[in-house]
Structure formats: structure tokens, C-alpha cells
Amino acid sequence: MIAATFTAPADYRSYQIKGQVISVAPAGPDGEARASLYVDAMLKVMTGLGVSREQLSHTFPLAGLVCVRYRPEAVFVQTPGPKAGSAVTDSET
User: Fold this and answer.
1) pTM (two decimals)
2) What is the full DSSP assignment across 19-77?
3) In the chain, what percentage of residues exceed pLDDT 90?
4) Residue from 48, 72, 42 nearest 60 by CA
5) Structure confidence at residue 75 (pLDDT)
6) Exposed / middle / buried, residue 78 (Cβ in 10 Å: 0-12, 13-18, 19+)
7) In 31-49, which positions are buried (b, 16+ CB within 10 angstroms) versus exposed (e)?
8) Is the separation of the CB atoms in 69 and 23 below 8 Å?
9) Shortest CA distance to 69 belongs to which of 29, 25, 14?
10) Handedness of CA 84, 86, 87, 91 (dihedral sign)
């Protein structure tokens, strides 16, 4: 099993996806390149929100990346507030 949380930095809207791990393998050159582009984009977003690169220096490591593939089974609201922890239903998507 895996639980992965995804958050939009600008408004802290967050969702957690739980599911079964299908495979874990080294990221490889394509995965490493995509991760590098993502880190660059996130550093721009986060510094635009007032977080310094020094504060983020250990948040986005690129060494030893792995690719985790999983089958999502459930989605939960994680954003702080009254719905935190509640399951997201098909009618909410």
C-alpha cells in the first residue's frame, strides 16, 4: 500500500491518494529529466510565495530517485477544514 499527498502551494488545497504499489524501480534518465524540470518549476512557485531556496535545500533532492507506479484505490481531502480526511466521491470529481 502507498499513500501519496498532493498539495497546491498557493492555496494549500491537498488530496491524499491511497493505492496498491505496482512497481518500484530506479527513475532512469527520462524520469530524472522530468523530475529536474518539476523541481525547477516548484522552486519558482515556492520562492514566489516567499519560501527561500535555503529553506527548500533538502525538500527537492534529485539523487537516488525511484519511480513508484501504483493503482489508486481511494482519494481523500487533506486540506485543513471540516472536510479534512473525508473521502472524495465520484460526484465531487
Assistant:
1) 0.76
2) EEEEEEEE-HHHHHHHHHHHHHHHHHHHHHTT--TTTTTTTS--TT-EEEEEEEEEEEE
3) 59
4) 42
5) 96
6) buried
7) eeeebeeeeeeeeeebeee
8) yes
9) 25
10) negative
Q: Which amino acid is at 91?
A: S
* Number of other residues whose CB lies within 10 A of the CB of residue 83: 13
- 4's grid cell: 501519496
Cell numbers found for residue 52: 527561500
Question: Which cell is 44 given?
Answer: 519558482
Q: How far is CA 81 from the centre of its chain?
A: 20
What are the residue ranges spanned by the domains of the chain?
1-25+70-84, 28-64
What pLDDT band is residue 56 in, cutting at 50, 70 and 90? confident
Q: Look at 53 and 72; give whichever has higher pLDDT.
A: 72
- pLDDT tens digit sequence for 3-33: 999 999 888 899 999 999 999 999 999 999 9
